[in-house]
Write a structure and sequence with these properties.
about 750 residues, two-stranded antiparallel sheet, about 0% strand
Length: about 750
C-alpha cells in the first residue's frame, strides 16, 4: 500500500466512524434492565466513536501534517470558536463545585453538558471538517441524517398506531410518542433539525424540481413520515421552531433557486397534507385523542405565559404546567446570576462563580436555592434556556464563548451571500435558518446527545462551505515544529486511551446496574445486591447506583428492625459509612443527604448521646440544601421539637408558616409543630389556636374530605389528638369530642394513634 492510499483509507475510516455515530446515536436506547439508563447507549456511542476518531486523527497528523494545518488555516476563525466553547467547559470544570462530575458527567447516561460530551462533539466536528474533499462528503452526511431521522420517525409512528406493542420504547410521557429518545421533547428537537436537513438534501442533491411522477413524490412521502412524527410529539417548542426555520428555507428557495414556484409550493405543502392523513389513521386508542391534545396544548400556550406574583411578599409562584415550570426555572436562574449564592459549605467567591459558573452539569444542585417556594420537591437539571444554563454552569467565560461562536458563524457566512452560485447561497442561508430555529427552540428547551450531534454537523458544513482555499500554503517540514508531530500524535492517542478506559468502566457498570435492577424486580435480592455492588466498583460516582443500594439496604433494615433489633443495629453503621463515603464524592446530591439524614436519625434514637447533635445538623444541612422547599423546612421544625429543642423548633415552624403563606400553600404540619411547642411551654391558648389552624389548613388541602393520601391529613389527625390532650384538664367533654374525631378519622384510614387509654 502506497502513502497516498494509506491517507485515502484513513480518511474513509474517519468518515465511516462519524457517519456511523450520526446514524446510530438517535436510534440507540436501552430498557432499564439492560443498561440501567435509557439514554446510556447514546452517550456511550458518542464517546466511543470520538475515542476512535481521536486515534485516527492522530494517524492523520502523522501522515499529512501540512495539509491539516492548511485546512485549519482555511477557516481558523470557525474552528477557533468551536474549540473556545470547548475550552470554557474545560476551565469551568476545573472550578466546578464537583470537578469530576463536570469533567466526566454527573451521571453517565444522563449528562449532556459535561466536558467529555462537548469534547466528543468537537472531535466529530473537526473530523468532518478535516476529511472533506467535495460535496459528496456533505451529501453522504445529509443522507445519513435523513435515514436516521426517518427510522426514528417510523418507530414513533408505530408507537402511535400500536402503543401496546411498542410500549417498551415508552419511557417518559405515555400519552405522547417518544420513539427511541425517551422523551417527546427530545424526540421533537431531533426531528426539528432532521426534517429541515432532509428538505435541504432533497432540494440540492436530488434535484427534486426536475423530477416528475413517482420520482417527484416519494421523497416527499419520506419527509411526510418525519413531519407526522414531529406533530405527534405534541412538543410546542420544536414545532414552532420548525415552522420558523422551514418558512425561511421556503422563501429563500423561492427567491434564489426555484424554477417553478408551483412545484416549490407543492414540495413544501404536500408533506404537510400527507402527514395530516398519516396521523388520522385509526389506532387502538381514541381516534381524536392526539388532535384534542394538540389543540389543547396549542390553545393553552397563552395561559402558560401567565405568571402569578404575590405583590405583598414578592414571592413568585406558578401553576403546574410546562411553560410555567420553565418560568420557574428562569426566575430561579435570574436570581442565581444576580447573587451567585454558595451551596452549603462551599466557600467559592462570587467573582469566581461569575466568571466560571458552578460547573458543567451542575445546574441540578443550584436550582433548589432560588426556585420559587413550593411544596413538592421538583428537581431540574437544566434551566430550559441555553443562555441562562450556560451562564450559570460556565459563567461569563461560557456565555461569551457561545455568543462568540454565534457571531463568528454569522460573520464567516456573510461573504458566501455575495459570491458563489445561487444554490451555494441558498445552502448557507438554509443552514443558518436551521441554526436560528435551533436557538429559538433552545430558548425554552434543553440540549441532549442526539440533537447536539446534528447541530455540530451543521456547524461543520457551514465551516466547510465558508473556508478559503486560497490561504497561504504551509509546509510543516520547513518549520521548527516538525519534531512536535509525533509528540502531539502520542498525546492524542493517550487522551483516547484515558477516556476509553473510563468509558469501558462505565459500560461494565451499566451492565451490572441493569442486571441488578432485573434481579431485584424478579425477587432475587441477594443477586441484585451483588450486581449493584459490582456496578458501584466500576463507577463509584453514580448516584443512581448508590440510591438503589441504599433503598434495598433500608428495606432490609426495616424488616430486621421488626424481627431482630440487634441485626438491624448492625446494618445502620454500614449504611452510614457507605453514604458518608459517597458524600465525599458527590456532596450536593439531595438523595444522598436525605438518606444520611434518615440514617443518623435512626442512629440517634438508638444512641442519642453520640448522634443527637449530628442528626440535628443533618436536618439543618438538608433544609439548607433545598431552602425553598416547604417539606425539609417542616420536617426540621418537627425534629427539633421532638428532640427537645422547643424554642428552635417553634422558630423554624414559624418560618415554615411564613413560607407557606407567601406562596399560597397550606402548612398543617408547621402549625401542628408550633402548637406542640406552645403546649410544652404551657402557652395553652396559642397552642389551641395553632392546632385549630392546622386542622383548617388540612381541611383546605384535603378538599374538606378525609383524603388519606394527602400529606396534611396526618397532621389533621394529630391536631385533633393534641386538642384532646389539651382539653383533658379544661373541658373533658370537648376533649372526648376531639379524641373521638381523631379516632374516627384514624379508623377510616387505618392509621394507628397512640392514644391515652383513658380516651378509649
Amino acid at each position: 500500500m502506497n502513502f497516498k492510499n494509506l491517507i485515502k483509507y484513513n480518511n474513509k475510516i474517519i468518515e465511516g466512524v462519524y457517519l456511523f455515530a450520526i446514524l446510530i446515536i438517535p436510534l440507540a436506547f436501552s430498557p432499564e434492565e439492560i443498561f440501567g439508563f435509557y439514554q446510556f447507549p447514546k452517550e456511550f456511542l458518542l464517546h466511543f466513536s470520538s475515542n476512535i476518531l481521536i486515534i485516527l486523527i492522530g494517524i492523520k497528523i502523522i501522515l499529512e501534517p501540512s495539509q491539516i494545518i492548511n485546512k485549519i488555516n482555511s477557516n481558523k476563525l470557525a474552528i477557533s470558536s468551536v474549540f473556545l466553547l470547548l475550552f470554557s467547559y474545560l476551565i469551568s470544570s476545573f472550578f466546578s463545585v464537583n470537578k469530576l462530575g463536570s469533567f466526566f458527567g454527573r451521571e453517565y447516561g444522563m449528562s449532556s453538558n459535561s466536558f467529555q460530551t462537548y469534547l466528543a462533539l468537537s472531535i466529530i466536528f473537526i473530523s468532518v471538517f478535516l476529511t472533506y474533499e467535495n460535496n459528496k462528503n456533505i451529501f453522504r452526511m445529509l443522507r445519513t441524517i435523513l435515514i436516521s431521522t426517518t427510522l426514528i420517525s417510523i418507530v414513533g409512528l408505530l408507537q402511535f398506531i400500536a402503543p401496546n406493542i411498542f410500549e417498551t420504547f415508552t419511557f417518559y410521557h405515555q400519552d405522547r410518542i417518544v420513539s427511541t429518545l425517551g422523551n417527546p421533547i427530545y424526540f421533537g428537537s431531533v426531528l426539528m433539525l432532521g426534517i429541515q436537513l432532509s428538505f435541504i438534501y432533497y432540494l440540492l442533491s436530488y434535484k427534486i424540481e426536475e423530477r416528475s411522477g413517482f420520482r417527484f413524490l416519494y421523497p416527499l412521502v419520506i419527509i411526510s413520515v418525519q413531519i407526522s412524527a414531529l406533530i405527534l410529539t405534541l412538543s410546542r417548542g420544536p414545532l414552532i421552531s420548525f415552522i420558523i426555520g422551514i418558512s425561511i428555507i421556503f422563501f429563500s428557495y423561492i427567491f434564489m433557486c426555484s424554477k417553478s414556484i408551483k412545484k416549490t409550493i407543492i414540495i413544501f405543502l404536500f408533506p404537510i397534507f400527507i402527514s395530516l392523513a398519516i396521523i388520522s389513521i385509526p389506532t387502538a386508542e381514541d381516534d381524536n385523542e392526539y388532535f384534542d391534545a394538540l389543540v389543547e396544548r396549542s390553545g393553552s400556550l397563552s395561559k402558560d405565559l401567565e405568571l402569578s406574583i404575590d405583590i405583598e411578599s414578592g414571592t413568585e409562584f406558578l401553576s403546574p404546567n410546562s411553560f410555567n415550570y420553565r418560568g420557574e426555572n428562569w426566575i430561579g436562574a435570574y436570581k442565581l446570576i444576580k447573587s451567585w449564592p454558595t451551596i452549603l459549605d462551599n466557600s467559592s467567591s462570587e467573582i469566581k462563580r461569575l466568571f466560571f459558573g458552578y460547573g458543567p452539569d451542575m445546574y441540578i444542585y443550584v436550582y433548589p436555592i432560588t426556585v420559587p417556594i413550593q411544596e413538592r420537591i421538583v428537581i431540574s437539571s437544566n434551566a430550559h434556556n441555553i443562555f441562562l444554563n450556560i451562564f450559570i454552569e460556565n459563567g461569563l467565560l461560557g456565555i461569551s464563548a457561545l455568543i462568540f461562536l454565534i457571531i463568528t458563524f454569522l460573520y464567516i457566512s456573510r461573504l458566501k451571500l455575495f459570491i458563489g452560485s445561487k444554490e451555494e447561497k441558498f445552502f448557507i442561508i438554509a443552514l443558518l435558518a436551521i441554526l436560528f430555529s435551533r436557538i429559538i427552540e433552545q430558548l425554552v428547551g434543553l440540549a441532549v446527545i442526539s440533537d447536539l450531534v446534528f447541530t455540530y454537523c451543521i456547524l461543520a458544513i457551514i465551516s466547510i462551505k465558508t473556508s478559503h482555499s486560497n490561504e497561504l500554503k504551509f509546509n510543516i517540514f520547513n518549520s521548527n515544529i516538525k519534531n512536535l508531530i509525533p509528540i502531539f500524535s502520542i498525546f492524542l492517542i493517550s487522551i483516547s486511551v484515558f477516556f476509553s478506559a473510563n468509558n469501558f468502566n462505565k459500560f461494565i457498570s451499566s451492565i451490572n446496574l441493569g442486571n441488578g435492577l432485573r434481579e431485584i424486580n424478579n425477587g432475587d435480592i441477594e443477586a441484585g445486591i451483588k450486581s449493584l455492588e459490582r456496578a458501584s466498583r466500576s463507577n463509584n460516582r453514580s448516584e443512581i447506583i448508590e440510591t438503589e443500594l441504599f433503598k434495598i439496604s433500608y428495606k432490609i433494615y426495616q424488616v430486621e428492625n421488626k424481627n431482630d433489633s440487634i441485626a438491624a443495629s448492625a446494618l445502620l453503621p454500614l449504611m452510614y459509612e457507605r453514604l458518608i463515603s459517597f458524600e465525599g464524592r458527590s456532596p450536593y446530591s439531595f438523595n444522598t443527604q436525605l438518606f444520611i439524614t434518615n440514617i443518623t436519625w435512626e442512629m440517634s434514637k438508638r444512641n442519642p448521646e453520640l448522634f443527637r447533635d449530628e442528626s440535628i445538623g443533618r436536618y439543618i444541612r438538608l433544609r439548607n440544601l433545598m431552602p425553598q422547599y416547604l417539606g425539609p423546612q417542616e420536617v426540621l421544625s418537627n425534629i427539633l421539637v421532638a428532640v427537645g429543642e422547643i424554642e428552635l423548633g417553634k422558630n423554624e415552624a414559624e418560618i415554615g408558616i411564613k413560607m407557606s403563606d407567601s406562596a399560597g400553600l397550606t402548612s398543617a404540619q408547621s402549625w401542628w409543630v408550633k402548637g406542640e411547642a406552645e403546649r410544652v411551654q404551657n402557652n395553652i391558648q396559642s397552642a389551641i389556636d395553632s392546632f385549630g389552624n392546622s386542622i383548617d389548613e388540612a381541611s383546605i388541602s384535603t378538599n374538606l374530605e378525609y383524603d388519606k393520601e394527602h400529606r396534611d391529613f396526618a397532621f389533621m389527625v394529630l391536631s385533633y389528638q393534641s386538642m384532646g390532650l389539651i382539653y383533658e384538664n379544661i373541658d373533658i367533654n370537648k376533649a372526648i369530642e376531639y379524641i373521638q374525631e381523631a379516632v374516627k378519622i384514624a379508623y377510616n384510614t387505618g392509621n394507628v394513634l397512640l392514644l391515652e387509654p383513658r380516651f378509649r
